[in-house]
Specification:
mainly alpha, globular, 8 helices
Length: 207
């Protein structure tokens, strides 16, 4: 029995996306994002969404993964769709929602088909030319690494906050879900900073 993978986690597979180099996938994601944003209209937005769904399927995401994405996105997507429909019409509402969801699914396909270590190596290599301008590429790579590794942690915290709110009969309260999530995320970030400081990371003084 296959276990659904959390959004942002690598899925071991031999699919076509897994065989591409991380740099090619990042460039492709960048080009897809530009094309999705640049081409107007709700029809093109739905086409982009179709491409995003296809990429996610090729990367190994399945039904329960899509459900988690849709459920999390609904918290922002439904109010955003309602506002865009009220202010600019339903066509604009569909365009905005489909564009955003297409980009989320495309990004999920990249992370699901790329090992975190390979992606970080590619990012570090691409930042190498900036070293001559005084940019600490190792710190930037570390920041990307921490951000990627925090994705599953934040998802777990969000799940715990939602379960706690449901246990108190406040599952419909946005505040009961978001406030504990923000506080726990900040606390986790502080613990991570303290652990790095204990290892002497981040305390280097500039010459």
């Amino acid at each position: 029995m296959s276990i659904p993978s959390p959004l942002g986690a690598y899925i071991a597979s031999q699919g076509p996306l897994h065989t591409l180099r991380p740099g090619a996938k990042l460039l492709g994601l960048f080009a897809f994002a530009i094309a999705t944003i640049a081409v107007p209209g709700w029809v093109s937005a739905l086409c982009a969404l179709g491409i995003g769904v296809a990429l996610a399927l090729v990367a190994g995401l399945r039904g329960r993964d899509f459900w988690r994405v849709a459920r999390a996105f609904a918290l922002v997507g439904i109010p955003l769709f309602a506002f865009q429909t009220w202010s600019s019409g339903w066509e604009r509402g569909i365009e905005v929602i489909a564009d955003i969801l297409a980009l989320i699914l495309a990004a999920s396909a990249v992370t699901a088909s790329t090992r975190a270590s390979d992606m970080l190596d590619t990012i570090a290599w691409s930042l190498t030319p900036l070293a001559r301008f005084g940019v600490d590429t190792e710190r930037v790579s570390l920041a990307f690494s921490l951000a990627i590794r925090m994705i599953p942690t934040v998802q777990d915290l969000a799940r715990d906050a939602q379960q706690a709110a449901r246990a108190r009969g406040l599952d419909r309260s946005l505040r009961a879900r978001t406030v504990p999530l923000v506080l726990r995320t900040v606390s986790q970030a502080q613990l991570t900073g303290q652990a790095l400081a204990a290892r002497g990371i981040g305390d280097e003084q500039a010459p």
